[in-house]
Amino acid sequence: MKKNKVAVLGGGSWGTALASTFAENDNEVILWSHNEDDVFNINTSHLNPRFLGSNKINQKVFATTDLEQAIDEAQVILFVVPTKAIRQVATQVEEILKGSGQTPIVGHATKGIEVSTFMRISQMISEIVSIANQDNMFFISGPSHAESVIQKGITLVSIASANQENAEIVQNLISTPYFRAYTENDLVGSEFAAAIKNVLAIAGGILTGLNLSDNTQAAFVTRGLAEIKRFGAKMGGESQTFDGLAGLGDLIVTATSPNSRNFKAGLGLAQGKNIDQIQDEMGMVVEGVATTKALHQIAMDYDITMPISEAVYQVVYEDQSIESQIQSLLNRPLTKEFN
Predict the structure, then answer these.
(1) 141 φ, ψ to 5°?
(2) CATH-assigned architecture of domain 5-185
(3) 197 assigned to active site
(4) Secondary structure of residue 11 in the 3-state scheme
(5) What are the sequence ranges of the domains in the chain?
(6) From the candidates 5, 60, 152, 197, which is the catalytic residue?
(7) pLDDT tens sequence across 271-321
(8) Domain covering 191-330 in this structure, CATH number
């Protein structure tokens, strides 16, 4: 029987971990990366030390810098490149697909919002890749740090798509005894939840860096979820999405774990570093930084109350002190918990 071919575009920590998970089910998995050293390491030692240290990658994963080779005859194409690289890679994919006549299932696992257009990732891809549209694309999200996934820690994710058949195909290709995928149909809500939780994770890192109490941390997660729900509902998401893996689940793991780049950025801010210094030291994309800017503008345009997210914006982009923003949050007018 011919194996299913999955092309994973993006050789960072998350893309590598997902490629390795797909390979656990004996799929043919091609991981595309622009970095020749990463490709060499994956193919020769089954390691991606720059992103995943000494954690072994499934030896069936084959890496390449040749995008055409990666997506040739692929049944599934999964974008896992940073938000800022989506359009460039999508344009190359479109050129290849138009020439080949292929019609693979297209999805992504990138968590961000484009700053210049405020588009979700699926909107960006569908604007460029002609066979991809909002009715058939899928999105993988949930509480799933790459470091835990590559170590085969028990992980649950959601696959959001309006096309249930496509979602189930991907669900069966990626689910393993330790990696369990659920399907759901709210692409809009899932993408916004994933993007917003990155901003909130910066706040979570700040609170941890300040050694604030468990009470504070619990209150933050609860009120952070309220912001996700408020924003998501305004933008057309479904309420149950935000209580599930794509919402609450992803928020908890990202806003409380040092495995999160956004959380680490918050820790750095609590230590008095500025955001440029933090990103230079990390050497990796911190999606929540750009999303903070986009979220600020969208919330203003649509009159959505986002106090914690706005406080992060004030610290990151307006050079306001953390202490002043905490006081500003605590001095807000008293109100009902549920409106």
Answers:
(1) -150, 180
(2) 3-Layer(aba) Sandwich (3.40)
(3) yes
(4) coil
(5) 5-185, 191-330
(6) 197
(7) 999 999 999 998 888 999 999 999 999 999 999 999 999 999 999 999 999
(8) 1.10.1040.10
